[in-house]
């Protein structure tokens, strides 16, 4: 009985965060009628944006999952000491905020970029669909890698592979017939994860796609709002985004409702064919080109006095940093830190509440709630929140904070769920029989082992909330710009030096947070 | 479990506290009883706004001005969103071009000009709801070393500059909107000018400063942009050159107006308007590189023999959306 | 003469237990006096853990009552929460708290009862010493072996100073020598403490060894209850027989019983021996009667025909599989193997007759 009340309370909270925006979108679209919907879909660029979104999402998913799986199989079969630095390198691009990565790539490899200056080489098509796919793949591959790594640890039993080899199968046959089928569920989960990321991505298409006229649904929503604030057509587009992603991500629900298996003891895995050297070289090259060179370019650009000048020490200045912070920059930075902190406290608490309640017959419905909340694209969520709560919260930082909690509580849930699954059963019962009431039992026996997980979740949410851009650009108003919005506006205005300087500041917290996060293996379940 | 209820309750409580704290420190400073709070929406460059407001604060220390600075396109969206949710929140709007400002007047957002007696502003920079504060000139920016430089607007469509021209987006930048209005009305150009540009491979980028950046980086060789942006880039050492067209730079004025919200709430708006159009304000504008409207205040240097052309604003008022739609049919949204 | 009447430590009356609407167990009535150990014997899924959870207070009965030390703790009037029942439980998975060291784990119930930290630690140390775990006081659960963890669990249960101990298959994850150790410790502390105990297990040998009374759970209810020797010698049906120890089932072509003797025709050979036992009613009626033979009720070397098909030396005794015309018979004899594979005679000393089903 009390559990039912608690579940109802938590579900109401989440409904307010997630269901209300979706309902508002649906209401607006319905109010427009079939005529209005058709008009919105026939508007110039809408059909193209839908097609582009699907194409980019599919391309990125295929590329990222394939490369992530291959890399995971190659790296995770190394001995543990060699694994750690390689894992860090693979995850390196994740540390850089999406917007900064896109911007840095355009500065490093774009026309008139660093590579053009030094070696006369540019990546053809960087400003356009190819570039969008490339950078999103760079971003999505580590996610796929981490998901497959978790699957390797819990599902792909090395003993099964040994059995196959003993039965006479060669290494590639073993891979095909034993390892990959065992990884089916983690692969599916990785694909869903990357698809959601790519379909809802805003920053990279905005930086790399828009200059070429290549629009995706997220950038179209943003531009439409800018030009006309016609919420009806925007609501239709946002709904299309939601439907697209939910259709593709339904299998993720299966993954999330399955209780996590026990972590197996460390059995030495079968080493893959081919040399360790090759793997190490590949990973180093990847990290350098995907993250290292762009970051370096960013630093150089931040130091350069003016546009178009060579980034040599003669042209260096620190004025860009000061210029970047002029106007509302410092206030925006403080605001972003505050909002990220608030989200870091609230979202994990909400996620932990759902994880704690999601046992027994509540597990499946709550897990579906989690999947849906995770899959909703940021653009759609932001528009829905603006329409739903705009009357009271329009243009305030509170609305942005609400959006952060709505988007990121899933992170808290995932971490809490994994930690809860890892706890041996019967802990609370043992405590109750020793004389502890329910609250005391939770306080003394459930919370402490989960504190690491809670801290990890808070750190994750803080990092993501701090450099969140998609929803902030839609929801901000006078006096409530976040730091990421300031940077994007600066990029819009073409001041590459100031943008680069601010972008480096944006990257600092994720870099600092990366060390404890990667040490605690937050992704493994 | 009671535990989860407690967690949920804690979440609500903590959230409200955080919200209160953030909205408290996020928005402009809370007004004490003596200070007046003004909100200004503007698309003027940040350094100009800062300089003018610094001078204003010295003259009127008990008036605090909260600024929301964004490109014209974003301003339009913000204003529309405000109207959607309870009304315009700005007391005054300081824009970049007359056409956008006229659209606001058409939506009954502006109050009639409160200081008709103010002297010094030339007649061509006045309209019933707003007056100009500075004059902007659209010029051509060229990458250093490009030869030969185009000498007129028409030459941008010639084959030797194929695929090398960058245009600002009229939906995002007010001054580009003004250029659009001029070319559409000018008999020698019309919409065919833009068609020819598109056929010659010209690309639309987003904002005025972005044009300068792209030309400086060599992504394009030529662009249409505002004079002060080019001068600033040249001063920083960027490899660009200001190319003043022989048939005249397109001149527009940057208007400022009081909104209906401001008229209802604040008497201090008139003080700010007066200051911007006073010698002190105009000097601040000139110091940041723009041409002031008051004749007595010296402006930035101009090349010898430079001429300007002006669109007929009143003829264009009312046709903005139509012109924009025709343009977007050529260049896309 | 003074007759002391004390309430039993545990009493369940007509309990119906289940999750959802249909009961998993019904009609459960049992009793354990002070110092008595009750074994709950049943295969997995028979409801042993369900019953333990109900006694502990984690499951509300669908019907019936539970009384602890003369006080009704579960029933139509309400349910006393687990922390207020004086019960100590030892779990199959040990249920040790991963973040607490051993000393804090054992001190936990003492702290809950209000003792100061130093007093609780002192008592906990004494308990650990009794179990020989004093050196492990600072370690955490993850650093202990299975046997050590279970002994810590035992110490923790003792620290609760309970009136009733509940054991939920405590040796399930332990290997044989550790199992013996735990059983010995349970017996020792039960004897000292005088508390009642309910010991759930699927292992017949364990149940027979620890219990004063054995309750066999099967098919959603209590199949049979009684002292271990009685259940071993006189099971009421095939399932109880199989659950309470190794048993062979022979099919006899006919059986005639009188007061003192039982004559069974097994595979065409008549066996008549004094000392056989039969259930109450005379074993007549239609159908072939079922004959249960425990391994120690037949010996090798006799007139009945058979063939030894397998020999398994177990250490203290040897098991022989003997193929007879009436079925396969398991014979257990002390000592090392004394026969070879092949034809051998055997003799029947005792049997249990069940009516044909």
Structural commentary:
The complex is a heterotrimer of chains A (525), B (333) and C (357). Chain A has 525 residues and is mainly α. Chain A has a single domain (2-524), classed as MetI-like (MetI-like fold). Chain A has helices at 2-42, 46-76, 80-95, 98-109, 114-119, 129-154, 158-166, 171-182, 184-200, 203-209, 217-227, 231-257, 276-303, 319-325, 329-357, 363-375, 378-393, 397-422, 427-433, 438-466, 470-475, 483-492, 496-520. Chain A is globular, with a radius of gyration of 24 Å. In chain B, strand 1 (36-42), helix 2 (46-59) and strand 2 form a beta-alpha-beta unit. Chain B has 333 residues and is α/β, with parallel strands linked by helices. In chain B, strands 1, 2, 3, 4, 5, 6, 7, 8, 9, 10 and 11 form an 11-stranded mixed beta sheet that branches. Chain B folds into 2 domains: 12-134 and 254-292, 3-Layer(aba) Sandwich (D-Maltodextrin-Binding Protein, domain 2), CATH 3.40.190.10; 136-250 and 304-331, D-Maltodextrin-Binding Protein, domain 2, CATH 3.40.190.10. The N and C termini of chain B lie far apart (53 Å). Chain C is α+β, with helices and mostly antiparallel strands and 357 residues long. Chain C has 8 helices and 21 strands. Chain C has helices spanning 48-56, 102-112, 117-130, 146-159, 176-193, 204-210, 228-233, 238-243; strands at 10-17, 25-32, 37-41, 63-68, 71-75, 78-79, 87-90, 164-168, 196-201, 213-218, 221-226, 248-251, 254-257, 261-266, 269-274, 290-293, 298-313, 317-324, 327-334, 342-348, 352-354. In chain C, the strands form 5 sheets. In chain C, strands 7-8-9-3-10-11 form a 6-stranded mixed beta sheet, sandwiched between helices. In chain C, strands 2-1-4-5-6 form a 5-stranded antiparallel beta sheet. Chain C is globular, with a radius of gyration of 24 Å. The chains are: A mainly alpha (525), B alpha/beta (333), C alpha+beta (357). Chains in contact: A-B, A-C. Chains A and B meet through helix 1, helix 11, helix 15, helix 17 and helix 18 of A and helix 1, helix 2, strand 2, helix 3 and helix 7 of B.
């Amino acid at each position: 009985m009390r559990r039912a009340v608690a579940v109802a309370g938590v579900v109401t909270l989440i409904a307010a965060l997630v269901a209300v925006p979706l309902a508002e979108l649906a209401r607006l679209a319905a109010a427009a009628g079939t005529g209005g919907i058709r008009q919105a879909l026939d508007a110039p660029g809408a059909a193209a944006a839908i097609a582009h979104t699907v194409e980019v999402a599919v391309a990125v998913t295929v590329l990222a999952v394939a490369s992530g799986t291959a890399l995971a199989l190659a790296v995770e079969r190394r001995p543990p000491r060699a694994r750690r630095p390689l894992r860090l390198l693979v995850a390196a691009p994740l540390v850089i905020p999406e917007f900064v990565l896109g911007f840095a790539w355009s500065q490093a490899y774009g026309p008139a970029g660093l590579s053009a200056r030094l070696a006369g080489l540019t990546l053809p098509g960087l400003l356009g669909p190819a570039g969008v796919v490339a950078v999103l793949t760079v971003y999505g591959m580590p996610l796929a890698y981490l998901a497959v790594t978790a699957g390797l640890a819990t599902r792909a039993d090395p003993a099964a592979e040994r059995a196959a080899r003993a039965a006479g199968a060669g290494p590639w046959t073993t891979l095909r017939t034993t390892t990959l089928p065992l990884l089916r569920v983690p692969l599916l989960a990785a694909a869903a994860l990357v698809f959601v990321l790519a379909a809802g991505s805003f920053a990279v298409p905005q930086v790399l796609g828009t200059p070429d006229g290549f629009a995706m649904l997220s950038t179209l929503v943003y531009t439409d709002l800018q030009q006309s604030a016609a919420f009806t057509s925007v609501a239709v587009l946002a709904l299309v985004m939601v439907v697209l992603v939910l259709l593709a991500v339904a299998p993720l629900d299966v993954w999330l409702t399955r209780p996590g298996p026990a972590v197996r003891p460390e059995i030495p895995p079968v080493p893959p064919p081919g040399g360790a050297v090759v793997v190490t070289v590949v990973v180093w090259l990847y990290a350098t080109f995907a993250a290292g060179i762009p970051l370096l370019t960013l630093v150089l650009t931040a130091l350069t006095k003016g546009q178009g000048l060579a980034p040599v020490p003669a042209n260096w200045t620190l004025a860009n940093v000061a210029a970047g912070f002029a106007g509302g920059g410092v206030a925006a930075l403080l605001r972003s830190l505050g909002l990220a902190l608030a989200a870091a406290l609230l979202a994990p608490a909400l996620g932990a509440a759902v994880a704690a309640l999601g046992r027994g017959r509540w597990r499946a419905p709550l897990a579906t709630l989690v999947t849906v909340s995770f899959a909703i694209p940021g653009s759609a969520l932001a528009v829905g929140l603006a329409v739903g709560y705009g009357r009271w919260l329009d243009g305030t930082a509170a609305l942005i904070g609400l959006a952060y909690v709505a988007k990121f509580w899933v992170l808290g849930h995932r971490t809490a769920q994994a930690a809860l699954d890892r706890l041996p059963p019967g802990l609370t019962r043992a405590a109750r029989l020793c004389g502890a009431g329910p609250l005391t039992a939770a306080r003394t026996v459930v919370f402490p082992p989960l504190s690491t997980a809670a801290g990890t979740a808070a750190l994750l949410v803080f990092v993501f909330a701090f450099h969140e851009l998609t929803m902030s650009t839609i929801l901000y108003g006078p006096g409530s710009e976040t730091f990421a919005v300031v940077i994007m506006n600066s990029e819009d205005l073409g001041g590459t030096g100031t943008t680069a300087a601010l972008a480096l500041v944006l990257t600092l917290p994720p870099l600092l947070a990366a060390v404890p996060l990667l040490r605690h293996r937050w992704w493994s379940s | 479990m009671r535990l989860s209820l407690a967690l949920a309750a804690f979440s609500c409580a903590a959230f409200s506290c955080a919200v209160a704290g953030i909205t408290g420190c996020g928005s402009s400073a809370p007004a004490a009883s003596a200070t007046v709070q003004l909100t200004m929406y503007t698309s003027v460059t940040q350094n100009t706004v800062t300089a003018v407001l610094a001078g204003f604060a010295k003259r009127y220390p008990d008036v605090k001005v909260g600024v929301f600075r964004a490109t014209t396109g974003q301003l339009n969206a913000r204003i529309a969103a405000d109207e959607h949710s309870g009304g315009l929140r700005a007391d005054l709007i300081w824009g970049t071009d007359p056409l956008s400002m006229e659209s606001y007047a058409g939506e009954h957002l502006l109050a009639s000009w409160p200081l008709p007696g103010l002297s010094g502003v030339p007649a061509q920079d006045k309209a019933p709801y707003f007056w100009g504060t500075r004059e902007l000139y659209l010029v051509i920016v060229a990458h250093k070393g490009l030869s030969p430089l185009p000498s007129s607007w028409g030459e941008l469509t010639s084959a030797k500059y194929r695929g090398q021209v960058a245009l600002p987006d009229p939906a995002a930048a007010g001054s580009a909107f003004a250029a659009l209005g001029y070319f559409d009305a000018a008999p020698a150009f019309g919409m065919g000018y833009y068609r020819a540009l598109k056929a010659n491979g010209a690309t639309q980028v987003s904002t005025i400063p972005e044009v300068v950046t792209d030309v400086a980086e060599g992504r394009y060789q030529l662009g249409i942009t505002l004079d002060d942006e080019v001068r600033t880039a040249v001063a920083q050492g960027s490899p660009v050159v200001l190319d003043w067209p022989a048939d005249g730079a397109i001149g527009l004025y940057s208007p400022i107006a009081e909104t209906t919200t401001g008229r209802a709430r604040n008497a201090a708006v008139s003080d700010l308007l007066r200051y911007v159009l006073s010698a002190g304000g105009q000097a601040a504008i000139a110091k940041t590189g723009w041409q002031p409207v008051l004749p007595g205040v010296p402006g930035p240097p101009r090349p010898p023999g430079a001429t300007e052309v002006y669109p007929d604003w009143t003829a264009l008022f009312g046709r903005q959306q139509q012109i924009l739609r025709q343009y977007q049919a050529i260049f896309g949204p | 003469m003074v007759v002391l009447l004390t309430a039993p430590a545990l009493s369940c009356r007509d309990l119906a237990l289940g999750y959802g609407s249909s009961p998993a167990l019904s009609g459960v009535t049992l009793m354990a006096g002070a110092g008595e150990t009750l074994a709950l014997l049943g295969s997995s899924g028979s409801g042993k853990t369900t019953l333990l959870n109900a006694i502990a207070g984690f499951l509300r009965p669908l019907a019936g009552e539970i009384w602890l030390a003369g006080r009704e703790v579960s029933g139509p009037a309400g349910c006393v929460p687990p922390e207020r029942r004086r019960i100590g439980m030892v779990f199959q998975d040990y249920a040790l708290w991963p973040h607490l060291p051993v000393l804090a784990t054992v001190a936990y119930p003492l702290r809950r009862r209000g003792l100061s930290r130093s007093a609780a630690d002192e008592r906990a140390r004494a308990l650990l010493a009794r179990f020989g775990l004093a050196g492990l006081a600072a370690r955490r659960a993850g650093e202990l072996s299975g046997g050590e963890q279970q002994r810590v669990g035992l110490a923790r249960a003792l620290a609760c100073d309970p009136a009733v101990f509940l054991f939920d298959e405590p040796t399930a994850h332990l290997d044989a020598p550790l199992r013996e150790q735990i059983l010995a410790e349970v017996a020792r502390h039960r004897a000292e403490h005088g508390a009642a105990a309910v010991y759930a297990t699927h292992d017949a040998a364990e149940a027979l060894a620890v219990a004063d009374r054995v309750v066999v759970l099967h098919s959603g209810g209590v199949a049979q209850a009684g002292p271990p020797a009685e259940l071993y010698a006189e099971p009421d049906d095939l399932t109880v027989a199989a659950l309470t120890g190794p048993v062979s089932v022979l099919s006899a072509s006919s059986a005639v019983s009188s007061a003192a003797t039982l004559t069974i025709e097994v595979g065409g050979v008549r066996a008549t021996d004094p000392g056989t036992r039969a259930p109450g009613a005379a074993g007549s009626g239609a159908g072939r009667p079922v004959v249960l033979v425990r391994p120690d009720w037949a010996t090798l070397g006799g007139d009945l025909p058979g063939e030894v098909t397998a020999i398994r030396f177990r250490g203290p005794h040897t098991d022989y599989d003997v193929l007879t015309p009436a079925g396969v018979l398991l014979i257990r004899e002390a000592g090392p193997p004394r026969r070879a594979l092949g034809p051998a005679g055997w003799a029947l000393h005792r049997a249990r007759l069940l009516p044909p089903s």
